[in-house]
Amino acid sequence: MASCATLWFNNSMWTEYIIPASLEETLRILAEKREKARLVAGATDLMLELERGVRKGIETLIDITCLPDLDRITFDEDETIHLGPLVTHNAAAVSKLLRERAFPLVSAAWQVGAPQIRNRATVAGNLVTASPANDTITPLMALGAWVMLASVKGTRRVSLEKFYTGVRKTVLQPDEMLLDIAFPALLSTPAGSFGQRGIFMKLGLRRAQAISLVNTAVVLTLDSSHIIKSAVITLGAVAPTIIHAPEAEAYLAGKELADEVIARAAELAAGASRPIDDIRGSAAYRKAMVRVLVMRGLHALRDGQEQAQVPEAPVLLASHFHTPAPAAVEWSHIKRQTSGKTIHTKINGKEYTFSTGTEKSLLRLLREEAGLTGTKEGCAEGECGACTVFLDGKAVMACLVPAPRAHGAEIVTVEGLSRRSSGILPAGEEQPGVRAEQLHPVQEAFVADGAVQCGYCTPGFIMSAVKLLEERPHPSRDEITQAISGNLCRCTGYYKIVQAIEDASKL
Question: How does DSSP classify residue 241?
């Protein structure tokens, strides 16, 4: 990876946006700015908080996506798994190591948001946001995780259980950065010995893009006769922080997973919950659903079906896994020329320089500064997918990306999907009688199949479909529905949209 120069962007939504070149510089800025600064990795929560005025007094954003080696999932000699602060949910969802030795985390990561969100949002960000409904906290708590916090004064290790002090409250100090998430890998199951198995279960109000109404993680340690040696059950969205179900855990020890044992353990787990009434569900309903989810999870573990709910190869909507850091791609001439107050980027293969709009989201930069209005603003909060674009080869929600993240990046919008721009018909290789800017096969299929009504959501669907077909040229219907799970259409029943993607895959 090329080294990154420190870049500063001044604007109105935040006073300054800094892309530091090293961890040491990051910690130094944190020590100086403290409560007035906020770290940026995925920024999927932070952008909403800034737009809505929830985060008061934030003057400086410190974008750490340029820092090297923080996006790694590693396994050390003590059989401890480590996740860097830039590990995204999609990275966790497709990790072979995590699938084999920490499956509850894989399941939780895969159920966060939609592919475009998971391409940006980080597991560390999910932990630091500290909502009791956040999905990855529950399995990490069940796995016995701890975090390493760093500042200019040094590092300190804090167990995840002690990390949280209340709703959206943690022990993280203003000058600290979460540098590492670590936990013991689940024990494998050699013949004649014992092992560990786990599951994560979630109930939301819809199948995708849903905040947990209730979630739970269960980790069992079993002996060679399938007797439970110990059990861990954690519950989310039913108390101010993630909690254990201690009576259910103690009850399961020494027992087999017979139906009556499962039923009783589920009842005890429900008794441990302390939910509230809110707009998404009553306390009584949440308590009842704790019982249901724990029962289903224990049945799945008994029957060896805990991994059935997560695809073996989830759709990522990404051309490649590891993404060059911003300002670290081969743009040395750009970095030398930048004054630190402008954004230099490539959009649809063309170089752009912006001296205004750095206070905006990427969506508004594209529409208002670049004049590329094909990318639509629907919800402006990452719910509808109408603003889907490709950022360094990954589909993202442009409304949740700070505009300065475009510096040194390569972006593709719906305007760039012609045959020339997509590489299907390279420049200089035009054929007689064929328009150089002929529609992309996905666009042609949407027209032919009538997969458009009002058309407002169409650019987002097309972008998701194009990235899916780059990733998987001949997707199954289930993979198509995974790919468009982050895109909403208020006019159709989706049938023609799915059909158009299937037809495009045949072209």
Answer: S
61 plus 79 within the same structural domain: no
Three-state SS at 136: coil
- The mean predicted confidence, pLDDT, of the chain is 90
Which residue, 70, 73, 69, 112, is CA-closest to 89?
112
Q: Is residue 422 part of a domain?
A: no
pLDDT digits (tens, 9 = 90+) for 379-419: 999 999 999 999 999 999 999 999 999 999 999 999 999 85
**Rounded Cα–Cα distance for residues 496 and 181 (Å):** 43
SS3 content of the chain, % helix, strand, coil (to 5): 35, 20, 45
Contact 82/180 with Cβ under 8 angstroms? Answer: yes
> What percentage of residues in the chain have a pLDDT greater than 90?
80
- Is residue 324's pLDDT more than 60? no
| 111 plus 31 within the same structural domain | no
Return the CATH number at 81.
3.30.465.10
The amino acid sitting at 143 is L
CA distance 57 to 256: 54
Residue whose structure tokens are 């004054």: 339
Cα 227 to Cα 254: distance, rounded to the nearest angstrom: 6
Q: Are residues 110 and 249 in the same domain?
A: yes
337 within a domain of the structure (yes/no): yes
Shared-domain flag, residues 141 and 279:
yes
- Helices 458-471 and 441-448 pack at an angle, to 10 degrees, of 130
pLDDT, tens only, 266-296: 999 999 999 999 988 999 999 999 999 999 9
Domain that residue 259 falls in: 73-302
Which amino acid is present at 417? L
Distance separating alpha carbons of residues 190 and 52, to the nearest angstrom: 52
> 457 to each of 248, 417, 433, 460, 503, how far by Cα in Å?
47, 16, 32, 6, 19
* pTM > 0.85: yes or no: yes
Tokens found for residue 320: 């490649």
419 found inside a domain = no
Domain check: are 352 and 468 in the same one?
no
Facing residues of 158 across strands? 147
Mark whether 58 and 84 lie in a shared domain: no
Instruction: Quote the distance between the C-alpha of residue 275 and its chain's center.
Output: 26
Closest to 18 measured CA to CA, from 354, 322, 326: 326
CATH for 37: 3.10.20.30
Q: What is the pLDDT of residues 171-212, one digit of tens each?
A: 999 999 999 999 999 997 654 457 999 999 999 998 889 999
DSSP assignment of 283-300 equals: HHHHHHHHHHHHHHHHHH
**Of the ranges 7-11, 194-198, 291-295, 423-427, which one carries the lowest mean pLDDT score?**
423-427
Q: How far apart are CA 232 and CA 162, in angstroms?
A: 17
Which tokens go with 40? 């940026």
